[in-house]
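Morning run. Coffee first, then this:
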Amino acid sequence: MLRHIHISKGSGQLTRLDSEVSRGLLPGSTSSTSTFETINSWIGECLTTHSKCNAAGPARLANVQYPIRMLDLQHNDIVLRDNYPPQNYACLSHCWGTGAEIVMTTLDTIAAFKKNIPWHILPKSFQDAVDISRKLRISYLWIDSLCIIQDSPQDWKEQASQMADIYENAFVTIAATKAQGPSQGCYSQTDPLFLAEPLPGYNRLVIRRRLPSLKVPCWPYEGVPPILTRGWTYQELYLSPRVLHFTSQEVMWECHSMQRCESKCHERTQGLPDRRFVEDDDELRMQWCERVEAYSPLQLTFVKDRLPAIAAIAKRMQDVRGDSEYLAGLWRDTLLLDLLWYIEAPEKDRLLEGSVPTWSWASIPGQVLWAFTDTPLKVVEVLDTVYVTNGPRLTGDILEAKITLRAPLLKMEGLRTVRDVHFEDHPELITKRGQDSTSPPSSNSPVDTLESIIVLSFKWDLIPSLHPPPSECYILPLASWAIEVPHGGLVITRQEGVANTYRRIGFVSMQHVTEVILSKRSNSVAHTPGNVSTQQSMSRFIEALNEDDRRYEIIEQSRIELDGALEGLPTEKFVLI
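And here it is:
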Protein backbone atom coordinates (compact mmCIF):
# COMPACT_ATOMS: atom_id res chain seq x y z
CA MET A 1 0.00 0.00 0.00
CA LEU A 2 1.31 3.46 -0.89
CA ARG A 3 1.48 5.43 2.33
CA HIS A 4 4.01 8.23 2.20
CA ILE A 5 5.94 9.78 -0.71
CA HIS A 6 8.40 12.67 -0.71
CA ILE A 7 7.47 14.80 -3.73
CA SER A 8 10.83 16.56 -3.59
CA LYS A 9 13.50 16.87 -0.99
CA GLY A 10 11.76 17.82 2.23
CA SER A 11 8.93 19.66 0.47
CA GLY A 12 5.85 17.44 0.29
CA GLN A 13 3.87 14.37 1.33
CA LEU A 14 1.46 12.26 -0.69
CA THR A 15 -0.93 10.33 1.57
CA ARG A 16 -3.79 7.86 1.25
CA LEU A 17 -6.76 8.90 3.35
CA ASP A 18 -7.03 5.39 4.79
CA SER A 19 -3.34 5.22 5.79
CA GLU A 20 -1.72 5.66 9.21
CA VAL A 21 -0.11 8.91 8.08
CA SER A 22 -3.52 10.41 7.32
CA ARG A 23 -4.07 10.68 11.06
CA GLY A 24 -1.40 13.39 10.97
CA LEU A 25 -3.33 15.71 8.67
CA LEU A 26 -3.57 19.06 10.39
CA PRO A 27 -7.04 20.37 11.29
CA GLY A 28 -6.16 23.98 10.46
CA SER A 29 -6.43 25.49 13.94
CA THR A 30 -4.69 24.58 17.19
CA SER A 31 -7.89 25.40 19.07
CA SER A 32 -9.93 22.80 17.17
CA THR A 33 -11.85 19.87 18.65
CA SER A 34 -9.63 17.56 16.63
CA THR A 35 -6.50 19.04 18.22
CA PHE A 36 -7.82 18.47 21.73
CA GLU A 37 -8.83 14.91 20.89
CA THR A 38 -5.21 14.37 19.85
CA ILE A 39 -3.91 16.02 23.03
CA ASN A 40 -6.12 13.83 25.19
CA SER A 41 -4.84 10.74 23.37
CA TRP A 42 -1.26 11.78 24.19
CA ILE A 43 -2.19 12.32 27.83
CA GLY A 44 -3.90 8.93 27.97
CA GLU A 45 -0.88 7.20 26.44
CA CYS A 46 1.44 8.91 28.91
CA LEU A 47 -0.67 8.07 31.97
CA THR A 48 -1.23 4.43 31.06
CA THR A 49 2.04 3.32 29.43
CA HIS A 50 4.88 5.57 30.64
CA SER A 51 6.36 4.23 33.85
CA LYS A 52 9.14 6.82 33.62
CA CYS A 53 6.60 9.68 33.63
CA ASN A 54 4.50 8.26 36.47
CA ALA A 55 7.08 6.88 38.85
CA ALA A 56 5.42 8.42 41.92
CA GLY A 57 2.10 6.67 41.25
CA PRO A 58 -1.14 7.57 43.11
CA ALA A 59 0.77 8.95 46.09
CA ARG A 60 2.09 11.86 44.01
CA LEU A 61 -0.69 14.33 44.85
CA ALA A 62 -0.35 13.77 48.59
CA ASN A 63 3.39 14.49 48.49
CA VAL A 64 3.37 17.50 46.17
CA GLN A 65 4.71 20.82 47.45
CA TYR A 66 2.01 23.10 46.04
CA PRO A 67 2.45 26.77 45.07
CA ILE A 68 1.26 29.31 47.63
CA ARG A 69 -1.32 30.67 45.19
CA MET A 70 -3.10 29.41 42.07
CA LEU A 71 -5.88 30.48 39.76
CA ASP A 72 -9.16 28.65 40.40
CA LEU A 73 -10.89 27.95 37.06
CA GLN A 74 -13.76 25.79 38.33
CA HIS A 75 -16.48 28.38 37.79
CA ASN A 76 -17.14 31.15 35.30
CA ASP A 77 -15.04 33.58 37.31
CA ILE A 78 -11.27 33.30 37.61
CA VAL A 79 -10.22 33.62 41.24
CA LEU A 80 -6.77 33.82 42.84
CA ARG A 81 -6.72 31.37 45.75
CA ASP A 82 -4.20 30.59 48.47
CA ASN A 83 -6.31 27.81 49.98
CA TYR A 84 -7.27 24.96 47.67
CA PRO A 85 -7.52 21.16 47.81
CA PRO A 86 -4.62 19.02 46.51
CA GLN A 87 -5.16 18.17 42.86
CA ASN A 88 -3.57 18.39 39.42
CA TYR A 89 -2.69 21.82 38.10
CA ALA A 90 -1.20 23.30 34.93
CA CYS A 91 1.50 25.94 34.51
CA LEU A 92 1.84 28.52 31.75
CA SER A 93 5.28 29.10 30.24
CA HIS A 94 5.31 32.28 28.18
CA CYS A 95 7.37 35.27 27.06
CA TRP A 96 6.83 38.53 28.92
CA GLY A 97 7.93 40.61 25.94
CA THR A 98 8.62 44.15 27.15
CA GLY A 99 6.50 43.53 30.24
CA ALA A 100 4.12 46.38 29.36
CA GLU A 101 1.24 44.05 28.44
CA ILE A 102 1.54 41.76 31.46
CA VAL A 103 -1.26 41.75 34.04
CA MET A 104 0.27 41.43 37.50
CA THR A 105 -0.83 40.73 41.02
CA THR A 106 0.41 43.52 43.27
CA LEU A 107 -0.13 44.53 46.86
CA ASP A 108 -2.88 46.83 45.57
CA THR A 109 -4.68 44.27 43.36
CA ILE A 110 -4.38 41.02 45.33
CA ALA A 111 -7.53 41.57 47.40
CA ALA A 112 -9.64 42.22 44.28
CA PHE A 113 -8.09 39.28 42.39
CA LYS A 114 -9.08 36.96 45.25
CA LYS A 115 -12.69 37.81 44.40
CA ASN A 116 -12.44 37.88 40.61
CA ILE A 117 -9.93 38.57 37.85
CA PRO A 118 -11.90 40.19 35.02
CA TRP A 119 -11.59 38.25 31.77
CA HIS A 120 -11.15 41.35 29.64
CA ILE A 121 -7.96 42.47 31.42
CA LEU A 122 -6.17 39.19 30.72
CA PRO A 123 -3.84 39.19 27.71
CA LYS A 124 -4.56 36.67 24.95
CA SER A 125 -1.96 34.10 26.09
CA PHE A 126 -3.51 34.04 29.57
CA GLN A 127 -7.04 33.68 28.17
CA ASP A 128 -5.93 30.83 25.90
CA ALA A 129 -4.15 29.08 28.80
CA VAL A 130 -7.37 29.23 30.83
CA ASP A 131 -9.32 27.82 27.87
CA ILE A 132 -6.79 25.02 27.32
CA SER A 133 -6.85 24.08 31.02
CA ARG A 134 -10.62 23.93 31.09
CA LYS A 135 -10.78 21.83 27.91
CA LEU A 136 -8.35 19.39 29.57
CA ARG A 137 -10.50 19.43 32.73
CA ILE A 138 -7.74 20.91 34.84
CA SER A 139 -9.23 23.20 37.46
CA TYR A 140 -6.15 25.10 38.64
CA LEU A 141 -3.58 27.11 36.70
CA TRP A 142 -0.32 28.75 37.78
CA ILE A 143 0.82 31.89 35.93
CA ASP A 144 3.89 33.66 37.28
CA SER A 145 2.73 37.29 37.02
CA LEU A 146 -0.60 36.52 38.72
CA CYS A 147 0.46 33.98 41.34
CA ILE A 148 3.47 35.94 42.65
CA ILE A 149 3.01 39.39 44.21
CA GLN A 150 5.21 41.27 41.78
CA ASP A 151 5.91 44.36 43.92
CA SER A 152 6.71 42.37 47.06
CA PRO A 153 10.46 41.57 47.06
CA GLN A 154 9.99 39.05 49.85
CA ASP A 155 7.17 37.16 48.11
CA TRP A 156 9.00 37.27 44.78
CA LYS A 157 12.21 35.84 46.22
CA GLU A 158 10.40 33.13 48.18
CA GLN A 159 8.31 32.06 45.18
CA ALA A 160 11.26 32.21 42.78
CA SER A 161 13.15 29.86 45.10
CA GLN A 162 10.22 27.39 44.85
CA MET A 163 10.10 27.42 41.04
CA ALA A 164 11.61 23.93 40.80
CA ASP A 165 8.73 22.46 42.80
CA ILE A 166 6.11 24.54 40.99
CA TYR A 167 6.99 23.36 37.47
CA GLU A 168 8.22 19.90 38.39
CA ASN A 169 4.98 19.07 40.23
CA ALA A 170 2.62 20.45 37.59
CA PHE A 171 0.57 17.90 35.70
CA VAL A 172 1.40 19.68 32.44
CA THR A 173 3.01 22.93 31.32
CA ILE A 174 1.23 24.89 28.58
CA ALA A 175 3.88 26.61 26.48
CA ALA A 176 2.95 29.66 24.38
CA THR A 177 5.84 28.64 22.15
CA LYS A 178 5.15 30.83 19.12
CA ALA A 179 4.27 34.04 21.01
CA GLN A 180 6.79 36.85 21.50
CA GLY A 181 4.57 38.50 24.07
CA PRO A 182 1.37 37.89 26.06
CA SER A 183 -0.91 39.56 23.49
CA GLN A 184 -0.13 36.98 20.77
CA GLY A 185 -1.85 34.05 22.45
CA CYS A 186 -1.28 30.31 22.37
CA TYR A 187 -3.61 29.35 19.51
CA SER A 188 -2.77 29.74 15.82
CA GLN A 189 -4.16 29.07 12.35
CA THR A 190 -2.09 26.66 10.27
CA ASP A 191 -0.52 28.04 7.09
CA PRO A 192 -2.52 26.64 4.11
CA LEU A 193 0.76 25.29 2.69
CA PHE A 194 0.69 22.60 5.38
CA LEU A 195 -2.96 21.63 4.96
CA ALA A 196 -3.96 18.64 2.81
CA GLU A 197 -5.42 19.22 -0.67
CA PRO A 198 -6.99 16.52 -2.90
CA LEU A 199 -4.65 15.31 -5.65
CA PRO A 200 -6.54 15.83 -8.95
CA GLY A 201 -7.29 12.61 -10.80
CA TYR A 202 -6.50 10.32 -7.87
CA ASN A 203 -9.18 8.86 -5.63
CA ARG A 204 -8.67 9.35 -1.88
CA LEU A 205 -5.16 10.80 -2.23
CA VAL A 206 -4.17 14.14 -0.75
CA ILE A 207 -1.02 16.24 -0.96
CA ARG A 208 0.46 18.73 1.46
CA ARG A 209 3.74 20.43 2.11
CA ARG A 210 5.89 18.53 4.59
CA LEU A 211 6.59 20.46 7.76
CA PRO A 212 10.25 21.55 7.94
CA SER A 213 12.82 19.75 10.06
CA LEU A 214 12.78 20.67 13.71
CA LYS A 215 15.70 22.77 14.87
CA VAL A 216 17.35 23.62 18.17
CA PRO A 217 16.27 22.15 20.44
CA CYS A 218 13.55 20.42 18.45
CA TRP A 219 11.75 22.96 16.25
CA PRO A 220 10.68 25.50 14.66
CA TYR A 221 9.29 26.56 11.33
CA GLU A 222 10.36 30.21 11.15
CA GLY A 223 13.61 30.40 13.06
CA VAL A 224 13.90 29.61 16.75
CA PRO A 225 10.50 30.17 18.40
CA PRO A 226 10.47 33.02 20.93
CA ILE A 227 9.97 30.89 24.03
CA LEU A 228 13.20 28.99 23.35
CA THR A 229 15.22 32.24 23.36
CA ARG A 230 14.13 33.33 26.85
CA GLY A 231 16.02 32.76 30.08
CA TRP A 232 13.14 32.11 32.49
CA THR A 233 11.44 29.59 30.21
CA TYR A 234 14.60 27.47 30.00
CA GLN A 235 14.21 26.05 33.50
CA GLU A 236 10.41 25.97 33.19
CA LEU A 237 10.55 23.64 30.20
CA TYR A 238 13.54 21.71 31.56
CA LEU A 239 11.80 20.80 34.83
CA SER A 240 8.26 20.21 33.58
CA PRO A 241 7.20 16.54 33.41
CA ARG A 242 4.95 17.17 30.38
CA VAL A 243 4.90 20.10 27.95
CA LEU A 244 2.29 21.10 25.37
CA HIS A 245 3.92 23.40 22.82
CA PHE A 246 1.45 25.60 20.96
CA THR A 247 3.57 26.48 17.91
CA SER A 248 2.78 28.56 14.84
CA GLN A 249 1.53 25.53 12.84
CA GLU A 250 0.56 22.72 15.20
CA VAL A 251 0.62 21.44 18.77
CA MET A 252 3.55 19.35 20.00
CA TRP A 253 3.82 17.18 23.08
CA GLU A 254 6.88 16.28 25.12
CA CYS A 255 7.11 14.10 28.17
CA HIS A 256 10.01 12.06 29.50
CA SER A 257 9.12 9.13 27.27
CA MET A 258 8.17 10.59 23.89
CA GLN A 259 7.78 13.54 21.55
CA ARG A 260 4.56 13.77 19.53
CA CYS A 261 3.17 16.28 17.03
CA GLU A 262 -0.12 16.61 15.17
CA SER A 263 1.56 16.32 11.76
CA LYS A 264 3.48 13.15 12.77
CA CYS A 265 6.41 14.58 10.82
CA HIS A 266 8.95 14.63 13.62
CA GLU A 267 8.00 12.17 16.35
CA ARG A 268 10.50 10.49 18.63
CA THR A 269 10.49 7.87 21.32
CA GLN A 270 12.78 10.18 23.29
CA GLY A 271 11.23 13.21 24.91
CA LEU A 272 12.36 15.71 27.50
CA PRO A 273 15.91 15.31 28.85
CA ASP A 274 16.27 13.48 32.13
CA ARG A 275 16.42 16.26 34.70
CA ARG A 276 17.89 14.02 37.38
CA PHE A 277 21.52 14.75 38.17
CA VAL A 278 23.96 11.83 38.43
CA GLU A 279 25.43 11.58 41.91
CA ASP A 280 29.07 11.60 40.87
CA ASP A 281 31.32 14.58 41.63
CA ASP A 282 32.83 14.93 38.14
CA GLU A 283 29.51 14.26 36.44
CA LEU A 284 27.71 16.78 38.63
CA ARG A 285 30.16 19.52 37.72
CA MET A 286 29.89 18.71 34.02
CA GLN A 287 26.08 18.63 34.17
CA TRP A 288 25.90 21.99 35.93
CA CYS A 289 28.31 23.59 33.46
CA GLU A 290 26.32 22.20 30.54
CA ARG A 291 23.10 23.65 31.96
CA VAL A 292 24.71 27.08 32.37
CA GLU A 293 26.25 26.94 28.89
CA ALA A 294 22.79 26.30 27.43
CA TYR A 295 21.08 28.92 29.60
CA SER A 296 23.58 31.79 29.53
CA PRO A 297 22.97 33.07 25.94
CA LEU A 298 19.21 33.33 26.51
CA GLN A 299 17.44 36.67 26.92
CA LEU A 300 15.98 38.23 30.05
CA THR A 301 13.63 41.18 30.37
CA PHE A 302 15.44 42.21 33.56
CA VAL A 303 19.21 41.60 33.89
CA LYS A 304 18.81 41.27 37.67
CA ASP A 305 17.21 37.86 36.96
CA ARG A 306 20.39 36.26 35.56
CA LEU A 307 20.84 34.07 38.66
CA PRO A 308 17.20 33.75 39.85
CA ALA A 309 16.11 32.51 36.40
CA ILE A 310 18.22 29.36 36.79
CA ALA A 311 17.63 28.98 40.53
CA ALA A 312 15.15 26.13 40.07
CA ILE A 313 17.79 24.00 38.36
CA ALA A 314 20.29 25.11 41.00
CA LYS A 315 17.89 23.88 43.68
CA ARG A 316 17.75 20.42 42.11
CA MET A 317 21.56 20.43 41.89
CA GLN A 318 21.73 21.48 45.55
CA ASP A 319 19.52 18.50 46.49
CA VAL A 320 22.14 16.16 45.03
CA ARG A 321 25.26 18.02 46.18
CA GLY A 322 24.10 18.10 49.78
CA ASP A 323 26.27 20.38 51.91
CA SER A 324 28.11 22.08 49.04
CA GLU A 325 27.59 25.85 49.18
CA TYR A 326 26.06 27.69 46.23
CA LEU A 327 28.16 30.74 45.38
CA ALA A 328 26.66 33.04 42.72
CA GLY A 329 26.27 30.27 40.15
CA LEU A 330 29.33 28.26 41.27
CA TRP A 331 29.74 25.50 43.89
CA ARG A 332 32.10 25.39 46.85
CA ASP A 333 33.22 21.76 46.44
CA THR A 334 34.35 22.32 42.82
CA LEU A 335 35.10 26.03 43.10
CA LEU A 336 38.61 26.12 41.59
CA LEU A 337 37.38 24.35 38.44
CA ASP A 338 34.07 26.25 38.34
CA LEU A 339 36.06 29.50 38.15
CA LEU A 340 37.45 28.45 34.75
CA TRP A 341 34.62 29.86 32.64
CA TYR A 342 35.16 32.15 29.71
CA ILE A 343 33.29 33.88 26.91
CA GLU A 344 34.10 34.09 23.19
CA ALA A 345 32.32 37.37 22.44
CA PRO A 346 33.03 39.93 25.19
CA GLU A 347 30.85 43.00 25.50
CA LYS A 348 31.42 46.48 26.92
CA ASP A 349 29.80 46.33 30.35
CA ARG A 350 29.41 43.93 33.23
CA LEU A 351 25.90 43.08 34.39
CA LEU A 352 24.92 44.59 37.73
CA GLU A 353 28.36 46.05 38.41
CA GLY A 354 29.07 45.74 42.12
CA SER A 355 26.10 43.45 42.79
CA VAL A 356 27.51 40.21 41.35
CA PRO A 357 31.18 39.24 42.01
CA THR A 358 33.53 39.44 39.03
CA TRP A 359 34.44 35.76 39.50
CA SER A 360 30.84 34.71 38.77
CA TRP A 361 29.78 34.00 35.18
CA ALA A 362 26.53 35.84 36.02
CA SER A 363 28.45 39.14 36.02
CA ILE A 364 29.00 38.92 32.24
CA PRO A 365 26.40 39.02 29.43
CA GLY A 366 26.40 36.39 26.69
CA GLN A 367 27.16 32.71 26.46
CA VAL A 368 29.51 31.21 29.01
CA LEU A 369 31.76 28.23 28.21
CA TRP A 370 34.04 26.13 30.40
CA ALA A 371 37.52 24.70 30.06
CA PHE A 372 36.79 21.12 31.08
CA THR A 373 39.87 20.15 33.03
CA ASP A 374 39.47 17.97 36.10
CA THR A 375 42.58 18.60 38.23
CA PRO A 376 43.11 21.74 40.35
CA LEU A 377 46.72 22.64 41.00
CA LYS A 378 47.79 21.35 44.39
CA VAL A 379 49.47 24.63 45.27
CA VAL A 380 46.16 26.57 45.12
CA GLU A 381 44.07 26.63 48.32
CA VAL A 382 40.60 28.02 49.00
CA LEU A 383 41.01 29.43 52.51
CA ASP A 384 37.55 30.94 52.93
CA THR A 385 34.37 31.95 51.11
CA VAL A 386 31.85 34.63 52.09
CA TYR A 387 28.42 34.72 50.46
CA VAL A 388 25.66 36.81 52.01
CA THR A 389 22.27 37.40 50.38
CA ASN A 390 19.15 39.34 51.23
CA GLY A 391 16.61 36.54 51.06
CA PRO A 392 17.00 32.91 49.93
CA ARG A 393 20.52 31.91 48.97
CA LEU A 394 19.55 30.92 45.41
CA THR A 395 17.43 33.96 44.54
CA GLY A 396 18.22 36.72 47.03
CA ASP A 397 20.16 39.89 46.20
CA ILE A 398 23.88 39.40 46.82
CA LEU A 399 25.11 41.64 49.64
CA GLU A 400 28.68 40.30 49.89
CA ALA A 401 30.65 37.69 47.94
CA LYS A 402 34.37 37.01 48.14
CA ILE A 403 36.85 34.14 47.95
CA THR A 404 40.08 34.06 49.96
CA LEU A 405 42.83 32.10 48.22
CA ARG A 406 46.45 31.14 48.73
CA ALA A 407 48.08 30.71 45.34
CA PRO A 408 50.95 31.81 43.13
CA LEU A 409 50.47 35.00 41.11
CA LEU A 410 52.43 35.66 37.92
CA LYS A 411 52.94 39.13 36.53
CA MET A 412 51.47 39.07 33.04
CA GLU A 413 54.03 41.55 31.77
CA GLY A 414 57.03 39.63 30.45
CA LEU A 415 55.35 36.25 30.04
CA ARG A 416 55.83 34.80 26.59
CA THR A 417 52.98 34.01 24.21
CA VAL A 418 52.84 31.46 21.38
CA ARG A 419 54.03 34.09 18.91
CA ASP A 420 57.25 34.49 20.89
CA VAL A 421 58.26 30.81 20.61
CA HIS A 422 60.53 29.64 17.76
CA PHE A 423 62.47 26.45 17.11
CA GLU A 424 65.84 28.10 16.84
CA ASP A 425 65.48 29.70 20.26
CA HIS A 426 65.44 26.29 21.97
CA PRO A 427 68.25 24.10 20.62
CA GLU A 428 68.37 22.30 23.97
CA LEU A 429 64.83 20.95 23.32
CA ILE A 430 65.78 19.83 19.83
CA THR A 431 68.93 18.09 21.01
CA LYS A 432 67.55 16.56 24.15
CA ARG A 433 64.15 15.48 22.83
CA GLY A 434 64.72 15.05 19.12
CA GLN A 435 67.90 12.98 18.99
CA ASP A 436 67.13 10.81 22.00
CA SER A 437 63.86 9.05 21.20
CA THR A 438 63.93 6.63 24.10
CA SER A 439 64.51 8.62 27.29
CA PRO A 440 61.99 11.17 28.54
CA PRO A 441 63.44 14.58 29.40
CA SER A 442 64.78 15.08 32.89
CA SER A 443 62.88 17.13 35.43
CA ASN A 444 66.07 19.20 35.64
CA SER A 445 65.61 20.39 32.07
CA PRO A 446 67.15 23.83 31.33
CA VAL A 447 63.66 25.11 30.54
CA ASP A 448 62.17 23.87 33.83
CA THR A 449 61.77 27.50 34.99
CA LEU A 450 59.36 30.37 34.52
CA GLU A 451 60.57 30.45 30.91
CA SER A 452 58.73 27.18 30.32
CA ILE A 453 55.34 28.84 30.80
CA ILE A 454 53.83 29.95 27.50
CA VAL A 455 50.49 31.77 27.28
CA LEU A 456 48.32 30.17 24.61
CA SER A 457 45.42 32.60 24.68
CA PHE A 458 43.54 35.20 26.66
CA LYS A 459 39.73 35.25 26.84
CA TRP A 460 38.80 38.67 28.17
CA ASP A 461 35.60 39.21 30.16
CA LEU A 462 35.06 42.61 28.52
CA ILE A 463 36.20 43.98 25.17
CA PRO A 464 40.04 44.18 25.12
CA SER A 465 40.17 47.98 24.95
CA LEU A 466 38.70 48.11 28.47
CA HIS A 467 41.17 45.89 30.31
CA PRO A 468 44.21 47.33 32.16
CA PRO A 469 47.73 47.32 30.66
CA PRO A 470 49.82 44.14 31.17
CA SER A 471 51.83 45.85 33.91
CA GLU A 472 48.67 45.91 36.07
CA CYS A 473 47.54 42.34 35.33
CA TYR A 474 48.37 39.05 37.06
CA ILE A 475 47.80 35.43 36.11
CA LEU A 476 46.29 33.15 38.73
CA PRO A 477 47.01 29.54 37.66
CA LEU A 478 44.25 27.20 38.85
CA ALA A 479 44.13 23.91 36.97
CA SER A 480 46.49 21.30 35.67
CA TRP A 481 46.23 19.74 32.24
CA ALA A 482 43.70 17.26 31.03
CA ILE A 483 43.53 15.30 27.78
CA GLU A 484 43.73 17.86 24.95
CA VAL A 485 43.07 20.69 27.45
CA PRO A 486 45.90 23.07 28.45
CA HIS A 487 46.56 24.46 31.91
CA GLY A 488 43.98 27.07 32.89
CA GLY A 489 43.86 30.15 35.07
CA LEU A 490 42.40 33.61 35.53
CA VAL A 491 43.63 37.06 34.62
CA ILE A 492 43.10 39.38 37.58
CA THR A 493 43.92 42.95 38.53
CA ARG A 494 44.15 44.78 41.83
CA GLN A 495 41.01 46.36 43.29
CA GLU A 496 41.81 50.01 43.67
CA GLY A 497 42.03 51.17 47.26
CA VAL A 498 41.74 47.72 48.88
CA ALA A 499 44.87 45.83 49.99
CA ASN A 500 45.43 42.26 48.75
CA THR A 501 42.14 42.28 46.84
CA TYR A 502 41.69 41.51 43.14
CA ARG A 503 39.00 41.50 40.45
CA ARG A 504 38.71 38.97 37.66
CA ILE A 505 39.11 40.35 34.12
CA GLY A 506 39.64 37.23 32.00
CA PHE A 507 40.63 33.60 31.47
CA VAL A 508 44.03 32.35 30.33
CA SER A 509 45.29 29.03 28.96
CA MET A 510 48.95 27.96 29.20
CA GLN A 511 51.27 25.27 27.89
CA HIS A 512 54.84 24.13 28.39
CA VAL A 513 57.21 25.53 25.76
CA THR A 514 57.94 22.02 24.45
CA GLU A 515 54.28 21.34 23.77
CA VAL A 516 53.98 24.68 22.00
CA ILE A 517 56.88 23.80 19.73
CA LEU A 518 55.31 20.42 19.12
CA SER A 519 52.13 22.13 17.96
CA LYS A 520 53.91 24.35 15.45
CA ARG A 521 53.43 23.24 11.90
CA SER A 522 56.06 20.87 10.55
CA ASN A 523 56.56 22.92 7.42
CA SER A 524 57.91 25.78 9.51
CA VAL A 525 61.27 23.94 9.36
CA ALA A 526 61.74 24.99 5.77
CA HIS A 527 61.51 28.65 6.76
CA THR A 528 63.70 28.48 9.86
CA PRO A 529 66.90 30.54 9.58
CA GLY A 530 70.11 29.15 10.95
CA ASN A 531 72.92 26.75 10.07
CA VAL A 532 72.39 23.41 8.35
CA SER A 533 73.11 21.32 11.40
CA THR A 534 70.36 23.10 13.35
CA GLN A 535 67.86 22.54 10.56
CA GLN A 536 68.86 18.88 10.31
CA SER A 537 68.37 18.48 14.06
CA MET A 538 64.91 20.02 13.84
CA SER A 539 64.05 17.77 10.92
CA ARG A 540 65.05 14.73 12.92
CA PHE A 541 63.05 16.12 15.86
CA ILE A 542 59.87 16.43 13.79
CA GLU A 543 60.40 13.06 12.13
CA ALA A 544 60.73 11.39 15.50
CA LEU A 545 57.58 13.06 16.73
CA ASN A 546 55.57 11.63 13.88
CA GLU A 547 55.49 8.45 15.91
CA ASP A 548 52.36 8.95 18.04
CA ASP A 549 53.60 7.09 21.10
CA ARG A 550 56.70 9.21 21.35
CA ARG A 551 54.73 12.40 20.74
CA TYR A 552 52.26 11.69 23.54
CA GLU A 553 55.08 10.69 25.86
CA ILE A 554 56.80 14.03 25.36
CA ILE A 555 53.54 15.97 25.73
CA GLU A 556 52.72 14.21 28.98
CA GLN A 557 56.20 14.80 30.36
CA SER A 558 56.04 18.47 29.33
CA ARG A 559 52.76 18.93 31.16
CA ILE A 560 54.14 17.29 34.27
CA GLU A 561 57.08 19.70 34.06
CA LEU A 562 54.71 22.66 33.77
CA ASP A 563 52.86 21.41 36.86
CA GLY A 564 56.18 21.39 38.67
CA ALA A 565 57.08 24.87 37.46
CA LEU A 566 53.75 26.34 38.61
CA GLU A 567 53.63 24.48 41.91
CA GLY A 568 57.19 25.52 42.69
CA LEU A 569 56.31 29.23 42.60
CA PRO A 570 55.93 31.21 45.84
CA THR A 571 52.33 31.71 47.01
CA GLU A 572 50.49 34.58 48.63
CA LYS A 573 47.17 35.11 50.37
CA PHE A 574 44.63 37.41 48.70
CA VAL A 575 40.92 38.00 48.18
CA LEU A 576 38.96 37.72 44.93
CA ILE A 577 35.80 39.81 44.67
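The longest strand covers residues 501-512. Good start to the day.
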